[in-house]
Amino acid sequence: MRKITAAAMAGISAAALLAVGASSAQAAEDIPSDYSGEALADHVAIEDIPGDAVTAEDQKLVKAPNPMLRSAAGSTAIGSFSYSIGGATFNVPTGCFLTHSIKGSGKKIDRQITGVDCVGPAVLATRFCNTRLEYHYADTAGKTYKIVRGPLNTTCKTGTVPVYKTGKRTLPKYGKACAQLFVNGKRRAVQCHFITK
Questions:
Q1: Residues whose CB is less than 8 angstroms from the CB of residue 187 and which lie 6 or more positions away in sequence, other chains included
Q2: First and final CA of the chain: distance in angstroms?
Q3: Where does the record locate the signal sequence feature (predicted)?
Q4: pTM of the entire structure?
């Protein structure tokens, strides 16, 4: 962290910081996710789940964009944005995708896997720090009644975010299951699947 702060104070660009290998944006404590703009139920339940072990096959399911996606899976383009940590500004260009794969039937979910992948120049130009992947479950009226938060990834990754996977669960309601990407506490992408009979 000292290397990042000292370099930023000296006027060195974020690109130069990447070249010297600044790979950590350690958060002293948890960074809360910003849920503004989301319709929340009166008694929304928020659950922290570290996730299940991710296999090489799981990794393949969330590479973007994949024309051979199986089951219910989809990718959403992540729009370009900038964010700052410790005086350094990071720019995320277009070319990255949030991919969400869900396997199950009706309200029964066998597994969910979510990841971020970049293509083209964004593979090397994108730096993701202080990231979290979450699953948000909403009823048919669009009100979120449950949020499952993955771990906060405090290290910086180039062109990707660690894959998040959860296992079996039965939802109490029909509606939708959404994967959401948070970078430094701000929601940056959402990808949803409808849960129907």
A1: 33, 34, 35, 37, 38, 180, 181
A2: 50
A3: 1-27
A4: 0.76
Where would I find the H helices in the chain? 2-9, 14-19, 56-61, 122-125
The CA distance from 42 to 22, in Å, is 42
Distance in angstroms (rounded) separating the CA atoms of residues 159 and 133: 15
15-21: long-range pairs with CB below 8 Å, 24+: 17/88, 18/127, 18/158
Q: What is the C-alpha separation between 165 and 112, in angstroms, rounded?
A: 6
Residue 23: per-residue pLDDT: 46
Tokens of 48: 């922290």
Which one of 2.60.120, 1.10.10, 1.20.1050, 2.60.40 gives the CATH number of domain 29-81+92-195? Answer: 2.60.40
Collapse the DSSP code of 52 into the 3-class scheme (helix H, G, I; strand E, B; otherwise coil) and give the result. Answer: coil
Give residue limits of the domains in the chain: 29-81+92-195
Separation between Cα atoms, residue 184 and residue 65, nearest integer Å: 24
